[in-house]
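Entry under discussion copied across for reference:
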Amino acid sequence: MAESDKKQPWEHVGAVVGVVGALIATFVAVTQQRPAATVAVAIAIVLLGGYGIVWITRARTTSDRPRFPRGRWIAVAAAAAVLVSTGIAFVIPGWRAVVAHDVLGFPSLSQDMKIVNVLVAESDSAYRISIVAWNGTEREQMATRIKLDAVCPPPQPSGEHDIYQIQQEFKAGVAPGEPPINGQATLAEEPAFRIHVAGTLTDDDCGRHVNLSFGVSVPLPQNQHSTIFVDLPKAFTVPEAPRPQIVGEPPREPEMVNLPVARPSGKNFVATLVVSGVELSASPEE
């Protein structure tokens, strides 16, 4: 039997809107890159699929009976399954990241930005920490904070430990690309600026270890490596740790003490770079 030609006006409008929208989306998909192209493909699929489902469910024979009595239910069930699966994918964080980044192509700092290496060089007075970062996004990103932490278990409650406050300036700089010698940090680059560093130096059963944090403003160009280097002093001159005051003794100014620290290594050191609120961490290779 032939399909009835009787259609509601809204069906004609819907058909025109669906076809025109699908053509525009197809043009965008062909001429643009991700994520615009993948989003356009998804829109075209939704428009054409939606119109197809409406047509299947509305199609009638000349006797005004459903032309596809089973097909329309299959189409509706398939559409519902796709919608439910998509909803679940966007609700679960891990799946949402896969759909948004791997399928649709939206940038993700946690996946497109990374620290590819942390290198350590040594001079007479400092350890140069070189943080090699890769910006795989399509725009410049800004590094806003650096953390340098020695990995060490906390002291036992009964163990003796001293905590010293650090407030001083470090030499730092930034260079485009990776260091010229793979696996080694170079001392050839001269520090370009000074940064104010705050943190602690703890002396306990684990040895002397630092926990430092400081703000920076370092642009990371798109689709390339950048190397941020910081000169970590081999020894810190800090006020001595507070001691219990004996009753009756006058208060005294703390003396300054010079405390050397061990060379950072992959076993006891982590460098963290904060980019647009996302923390990227890595340790030196052994």
